[in-house]
Amino acid sequence: MRVPAPVLLILILLMGCGQQNEQRPETRDAAIDTTAVIAEGQKITQAAFQTLSSNLKQAMGEGGVEHAVQFCNIEAMPLTDSLATNFGVELRRASHRPRNPDNRADSLELASINKYLEQIEQEAELKPLVYAAGDQAVYHAPIRITNALCLSCHGKPGMDIQEDDLATIQKLYPNDEATGFEFGELRGIWSVNFPEAFFVNKEMKSEPE
User: Fold this and answer.
1) What is the pLDDT of residues 179-195, one digit of tens each?
2) What pLDDT, on a 0 to 100 scale, did the predictor assign at position 32?
3) What single DSSP character describes residue 95?
């Protein structure tokens, strides 16, 4: 369930190495525990990243970039959906320059992306963002180009991306917008939507019998 942007209260969460320092702006709604949202958001997105990256590396090892692109085309979204179902949330990767049009950022996701782009321009630290309305919460975290493996599919054609691999990308994704990236650039964001009862149910499970 997407939470409309006009009713959202944005909470920028400060994160340091080994600790979390939370800014608590004045809010009409104290029902959202932002510390819990950030912890669960991190756990879910880290699990998703590890699952996708390990499968992608395996595909790359089996058949190079071409096979990896084919893997992403068929398996990436089902894997993400399976993880989302397992955690009981809505989970996706969203981008301002998507490869798969289904991953195009919505208005709220785009607002976070634009904020991150501004922070990169200012050489500021990128921090997860939490949006809250009532008992619902949305978690966003940045996805950046961090290694050469990313550039082999999302870098510059003719430099990072080989001609045959580019042809495969263009065949599978005729409306691709996800090339031309450089190291350190923002590829998009993780977007996790927590249902209203997520944290209530979690608290109930944690209570001693």
Assistant:
1) 999 999 999 999 999 99
2) 77
3) B
The pLDDT-based confidence of 148 (bands split at 50, 70, 90) is confident
Q: Strands, DSSP E only, in the chain?
A: 9-16, 19-22, 90-94, 129-133, 136-144, 186-194
- Residue 99 has a CB neighbour count (10 Å cut-off) of 24
Residue from 182, 98, 188 nearest 147 by CA: 182
Could you tell me the pTM of the whole model?
A: 0.81
C-alpha distance from residue 132 to each of 24, 176, 197 (Å): 12, 32, 13
DSSP 18-59: TEEEE-----S-----HHHHHHHHHHHHHHHHHHHHHHHHHH
Grouping H, G, I as helix, E, B as strand and the rest as coil, residue 190 is strand
Q: State the number of CA atoms in the 13 A half-sphere of 96 facing the CB.
A: 19
Q: What is the DSSP letter of 125?
A: P
Distance CA 69, CA 66 (A): 5
Number of Cα atoms under 13 Å in the Cβ half of residue 181: 28
